[in-house]
Amino acid sequence: MPDIDDQLQKIAQEIHDFDDSPLTAYREKNDYQPVPGEGNPRSRVLLLGEAPGKKEAETGKPFMGSGGKVLNDLLESIGLSRNDVFITNLLKDRPPENRDPKAAEIEAYAPFLWKQIEVIQPELIVTLGRFAMHFILDAFHHPQKDKKISDIHGQLLQGKADYGDVYILPLYHPAAVLYNRSLEPNLKQDMQVLKVFLEKTSRK
Ligand code: URA
To answer: Which pTM value belongs to this model?
Structure first.
């Protein structure tokens, strides 16, 4: 079995070569890069955002803009850095004008995400925002899948992946704080759930 880094590198290459993507033409026209994800692939935790923005598409790295700064601060508030987790998105290419991802785009990129999850085998998937939350809860046929993010953010939910049990922690999207400051205390408090989770024994 190839090394975990090699496996992720192979997936990143597949994303790069993905010509049928609904967003490839836009990527090429703007000289953007795909954004497969980065961080520690041996982490117990995978953070799942929505889609790359302009800064991310320019650098090929997730969460590099103002939302990324909020995310870095949130991680720091519980003593973590970006290198302690693996960070990726539902879409691996930037949608035009940062519009919401379309269902067909989410579906087109989903196989890459599932391959990444299969390789990393996270114990906890932290969903950032409603799109990532609904995608994961739908995929796991979770009983809370039709709930709103305002009802279930910060709750540790249980799911079953092919490789074993997996927890899901829905959080508000870090960039939401930039538009609605009142969400900041919620996000900070919900990060404590992640901290407590990490203090528990691990299967890794
Ligand atoms: N928002 C996201 O959901 N992901 C990024 O990588 C950047 C902003």
So the answer is: 0.96
Give how many domains the chain has, as a whole number. Answer: 1
DSSP 3-state of 20:
coil
Q: Using CA atoms, how far apart are residues 34 and 60, in angstroms rounded to an integer?
A: 6
Identify whether the C-beta of residue 105 lies closer than 8 Å to the C-beta of residue 22: yes
CATH number at residue 87: 3.40.470.10
- Average pLDDT of 181-185? 95
Q: Which residue range forms the structural domain that includes residue 35?
A: 4-199
Is any ligand 1 atom within 6 A of the Cβ of residue 67?
Answer: yes
Rounded to the nearest angstrom, the distance between the alpha carbon of 59 and the centre of ligand 1 is 12
CA distances from 39 to 23, 46, 80, 157 (A): 24, 9, 12, 23
Q: Ligand 1 pocket test: which of 89, 109, 135 has the largest number of ligand atoms within 8 Å of its C-beta?
A: 89
Residue 27 inside a domain? The answer is yes
8: pLDDT strictly greater than 90: yes
Q: 97-152 pLDDT, tens per residue?
A: 989 999 999 999 999 999 999 999 999 999 999 999 999 999 999 999 999 999 99
Please state the rounded mean pLDDT for residues 187-199. 97
Between CA 41 and CA 113 the distance in angstroms is 13
Q: Is residue 35 part of a domain?
A: yes
